[in-house]
Amino acid sequence: MTLRKAFLFGAGVGAMAGFLVAAYMVGSSARARADRCASLTGEAQLQCVTRETNKAIVVTDDLDHYGVDDVWVESPADGKGDCEDFALTKARLLQQLGWSPSRMQLAVFGYGKQAHAVLLIDDKYVLDNLTPWVGRWKGYSPKAMGLYPIDVARSLARFTPSRMIATNGAR
Ligand SMILES: [Ca+2]
To answer: What is the domain extent for residue 158?
Structure first.
């Protein structure tokens, strides 16, 4: 996510030029990740989801991957994505494990010349693709540019041109 895109996002979803794609993984890999975390609870489950998702997606810049600044992909079928894609994928996996979306927010904050997105749970726990552990929001919040309910982030799918990505599942 570029800083410019983050500001556009913060200015209002109607003005956002980025894209959100809801692309669901099919087959056993997503289910296997859920199964490996299913026996855990609370922070241990958040840790498991962080570990499993961070392993499952190869960090790939959207501009290099798609030729545009931002493409938001939930559970990318090709296993490639950047910060917001990790966050959206973790949110979906947690929802599959019984966590309510009302507990989840997409947090965006400055990170050098870029913006960075993480998944915030219960205003406390931070799931970040840059770290293998579950962080504490207290350490991130001073830099925060915006907090968005996860369902709001998902609703941005309507800005996605169908030609951008062939999704392999339906919402
Ligand atoms: Ca992306």
So the answer is: 3-167
CATH number at residue 25: 3.10.620.30
- 8 A C-beta contact, residue 36 and residue 81: no
- How many whole angstroms from 11 Cα to the centroid of ligand 1? 19
Instruction: Report d(CA 135, CA 151) in Å as an integer.
Output: 22
Give me ligand 1 centre to Cα 61, in Å.
7
pLDDT tens track for 134-164: 999 987 776 678 888 998 877 764 444 433 4
Structural domains of the chain, count = 1
pTM comes to 0.77
Residue 146, exposed/middle/buried by CB under 10 A (0-12, 13-18, 19+)?
A: middle
Residues lining ion ligand 1 (Cβ < 5 A) are 62, 71, 82, 85
